[in-house]
Each structure stands twice: as structure tokens, then as C-alpha cells.
Amino acid sequence: MPVFLRVLPYVRRYPLLAFATLFCAVAGTLMVIVFPAVTQRIVDEVIGQHRPERLFPLIAIGLAAFAAQNGLNSLRIVFNNHFEQRVIFDLRSELYAHIQKLPLHWFDNRSTGDIMTRLIEDVTNLERVLIDGIEQGTVAILQILVVSGLMLAYSPWLTAAALAPIPFLAAGALIYTLTARARYRKQRKAVSALNSILHDNIAGIRQIKTYTSEEREHARFDESSDKVRIATLTVMKSWALYQPGMEFLSSLGLLIVAGVGTTQVLGGQLEIGALVAFFVLTRYLYEPVGRLHQLNQIFQSGRAAGERVFEIMDSASEVDEGADHPCKPVCGNVAYRDVSFSYDPKLPVLHEVSLEARAGEMVALVGPTGAGKSTIVNLLVRFYEFTGGEITIDGTPLREIPKHHLRENIAVVTQESFLFNGTTAENLRIGKPAATEEEMWQALRAANAEDFVRRLPKGLHSQLGERGVKLSVGEKQRLSIARALLKNPPILILDEATASVDTATERLIQEALDHLMENRTSFVIAHRLSTVRHANQILVLERGRITERGRH
Ligand code: ADP
Fold first, then answer.
1. Percent of the chain with pLDDT over 70
2. What is the pLDDT of residue 446?
């Protein structure tokens, strides 16, 4: 479906605003009738028939018309902006909602900068097509119709002369339209690539500094920035050719009117006043034509942006076959039977993995990196969909459990404990939105995090910075353990920290983890022998297969 039609439903939600905008636009446009008529009368009656007493009323009429025109215009801008901002808001909100529902493998293949560009810039560009397109397009076409009608009333011959360049203008516009899309696509893509580099580099500024790769990164940034420059210049170059070319053709209309009209006045077929009015009308005719060209430009840019927005909307969201099944309380008996999986069909990652964890048990997964340990646990939260075998929780197949219910019953504590840019309390409440301060302190205490949170300048209400940069690795880890404690689910997934923390910190974290694992089914990706010691089962994983199982 064309991009234009796809945005229409968003616009249709605001019929009143749409009507008010269009009404002001149309009424304002109709005021163009007044001034040519006033001019004609000034020339023919005030000057021609020597009736100076008519001058003032005629000017007053002109003044009223201009005042009304611009008053309506001002209202139109206000309505238009409200209309526009609401549509952008809705479009963005729906796009965001959809992005959240997309499966993880979708994100694996995208850069954050690209997604941000689409959500922020492309949505704005797309919406301009619609609002400006509908409103200004309607106004411009209306003005062309009204003015041509008036011209016809004055003199059909002269009208034909004035309209002579129109077919050429239409041909020019068509050529521009047909070729513009590729140029705009390229430009949107270049902007997106630039945003991606920027996002990546800002997130990795510490690495850039420690590897002293500022110059290399700057060069990479400039290279991408240069692509934006070139793509934008290509867009501008064709506009530089198109727009003045079309202006030139329009001016020919005026010259033709001058030639034909003057000949008619000399031959006595036309009043001078009518000729002067005709000049004014010809200007009024070509001014909206110019606006239509501008609109065409906005339209082409919007179309390229719209394709990018709707590409996201069209990506299939996560499937939840279990959505209609009842949410039964989870005890925590987990079983994998011959589970196979691959991220890329050509490269199988897990081969018929079977394991069983009874409620409250601790299962440790050990083995070399890349063996598939994280992949096994990722399947349990359904970050990725296993391709063969079956996983059950308390005997219920995983796919028959509503996804949100499943995820509510599992806590994941990873190595790089991700903290959001907010306060300690905000980060903890992700685990339990209604948590009271007392509950938060309790969780912090169990996670050995109470002391350092108390030392933060504003305690629970201290800002932690992006990704929690204001905390140490060990502190971040303990906060994320406290968050999982607040969530209090029957199943726990733990990707144990390998980060080199000192032994004192390690002990603090270990204690916190011991509290966290109490009375839960825990899957621990273990890197330290100390964790494995308490495990009910240890599974050794090699190249996607369990090669050994047993106890410490
Ligand atoms: P481990 O946790 O044992 O270190 P992983 O489960 O992370 O191993 O990885 C197993 C294999 O799957 C590796 O070969 C890795 O390259 C691949 N892999 C992991 N995550 C992805 C992903 N998101 N997309 C594609 N391949 C992946």
C-alpha cells in the first residue's frame, strides 16, 4: 500500500482538527478573489472614469480581505500544529509499542542509532507529507481552480495564453518525482548510518579513550558524515535545477499574457483594467504552482521516511501462542527434552539438550565460552524460539504459558547488570513497581547492598547515570540482585560475573547470590568453582551438547 494511504487512518482520528484546518485554509484562500477585482476597479473607475471618491472604500475592502486572509492563516497554523503533533504522537507511540514487541533476533540485526532515527526523524518527516500535503495541497489546487475560473471570466483567450506553460510544468514535476525517491532514500540511509556510529561511539567512549582510538573514530565519523553531505547535496542539486526551472517556465506565462493582452487592449477587445487584473491573477496562479513543487519535494522525502517507518511496523512481532491459556502459579520444575536450536539455520548451536531441574534445585552450567550456556537459558525466557524438542515448566509446555506470565516468574541476573538512567529506587522498582521503601531496604540488605546505597548522597533517590556508570561493577551487580529479590520469582537465571572483583567484593556478591537462590530453581552459568560447590547438578556443555553431568 502506498505510504500516503497508510498514514490516512492516523489522520482520520482527528476529524474536527482536520476540518478546522481545512476550513481556515479554504476560507483564507478565497480571499484572493478580492484584490484583483479591487485593482481592476481602481484602474477602470477611479482612474478611467475619474471618480476619486471611490478610492477609499475600495482600499478599505482590500484591507479587510488581507486582514481576514492572514487572520485565518494564523488560526490555520495553530490548528495545523495541534493536528500535526497529535498525529506524530500517535504514530510514534504505536511504533514504540511495536518495537517493544519485536523479537530479540530483530534487534540483533539492527543498530540502535538506526532505530532511533526512524522513531524520531522519520516519523516527523512522514507526517509532514500528510498534514502539509493535504492542507497546502488542497489550498494550492483550490487557488489554482478559483484563479483560473476568474481568468476565464475575464477572457478565455488570455487564460489559454496564461496557462500555456502548464503542460511543461507538469512534465518537469513528473520527471522530478520519478527520480527523487532514490535520492531521498539514500539520504535517509546516510543519516541513519551517522546516528548509528554516533550512538555506538558515545556508548563506547571509555573504550575509545583507553584504546586511544579517538582519531580513527573521528575519521570514521567524518567518513559517514561526508556521506550525509554528499547525499544531501545530490538532493539539493536536483532541487536547484528543478525549482528555478519551474519558476522560469511560470514567468513565461506572464510574458505571454503581456504580449497577447497588450495586443488585445490595442485592438480594443480588452479594457486596461482587465489586463492589469489579469497580471495580478497570473501571479496568483503561479504562486500556488510553486508551492506544489515545494510540496512535491516534501512528499518525496516523506515517502522515503515513511517506507522506513512502515518497514518496522510490518516486521512480525513476537508470537505468543500461549496468550489465551490460563496463568497457573509456577512451582519451578523445569525440564528440557531433546532441545535443539540455531540462531542461523546453517549453524546449529544446541543439539538435543535434555535436563531436568526440580523446584528449588540449583543447576550449574559449565563449559568453554561459546558452548551454548547462555543460549540454553535464553530459550527458557523465550528470548529465542527453540526449533526442536520441548521445554516444560511444571509439566506445561513452554509455548502454552502466556509470555508475560512466564517472564514474571523468572528473574535474570546477568554479568553486565544493566541499570537504567534513573534513581536507585526507580531501578529497584522495575522488579516490583509497588515496592515500599522498607521492602527495598530489606532487599538491599539481603543483597549486601545496603551499606553503599546508604552512602550515596541521596540514598535510594540518587541518580545512577546512564547504565549505572556512577557505581562500581560489584555494586551494580548487587543492585541487580536486589532487584531480582524484589521480583521474587520461583525461577532464577544467573549469568555469574566474571569481572575481576576483589575477594572481599566477591564474597559480598556470593552471599547475596546465596540469598537470592534460596528456595528457587536456579540455573547458574558458573565461572567459579565456589558456586558449583552447592549445585545439585553440574552440567558440562561442549559445542552445544551436554557431555557430562554430576555433582561437584
Ligand atoms: P556461552 O554462553 O556458552 O559462552 P553462547 O550461548 O553465548 O555461549 O553462544 C553459543 C553460540 O551461539 C556461539 O557460537 C555464539 O557465537 C552464538 N551466538 C550467541 N548469541 C547469538 C546471537 N544473538 N546471534 C547469533 N549467534 C549467537
1. 98
2. 85
To which residue does cell 487592449 refer?
A: 265
Nearest ligand 1 atom to the CA of 544 is 10
What residue ranges line ligand 1, CB within 6 angstroms?
Answer: 108, 343, 349, 369-375
Alpha-carbon distances of 363 from 232, 247, 327, 471, rounded to whole Å? 56, 76, 25, 30
Q: Tell me the best of 102, 107, 339, 375 to mutate to test the pocket of ligand 1, counting ligand atoms within 8 Å of each CB and taking the most.
A: 375
Residue with cell 485554509: 25
Q: How far apart are CA 63 and CA 447, in angstroms?
A: 76
pLDDT above 90 (res 341)? yes
- Name the burial class of residue 347, with classes exposed (0-12), middle (13-18) and buried (19+) by CB atoms within 10 angstroms of its CB: exposed
Half-sphere exposure of 243 (CA within 13 A, CB side): 15
Mean pLDDT of the chain: 88
Q: What is the side-by-side strand order in the sheet with 537-542?
A: 410-413, 491-495, 521-525, 362-366, 537-542, 545-550
Residue 349 · residue 372 · CB < 8 Å: yes
pTM score, two decimals?
0.78
Separation of alpha carbons 284 and 32, rounded Å:
8
Which of 106, 349, 541 has most ligand 1 atoms within 8 Å of its beta carbon, as the pocket-test mutant?
349
Can you tell me which atom of ligand 1 is nearest the CA of 375?
A: 6
- Per DSSP (E only), the strands in 295-407 are 334-344, 347-357, 362-366, 388-393, 396-397
209 exposed, middle or buried (CB, 10 Å; 0-12, 13-18, 19+)? exposed
Give me the pLDDT at residue 349, please: 92
Q: Are 108 and 163 contacting, i.e. CB atoms less than 8 angstroms apart?
A: no
Highest mean pLDDT among 105-109, 390-394, 544-548: 390-394
H-run or E-run covering 60: helix 55-101
Is residue 190 within 8 A of residue 231, CB to CB? The reply is yes
| pLDDT 10s digits, 438-495 | 899 988 888 888 888 888 888 888 888 777 777 887 888 888 888 998 898 999 998 8
Average pLDDT, stretch 135-156? Answer: 88
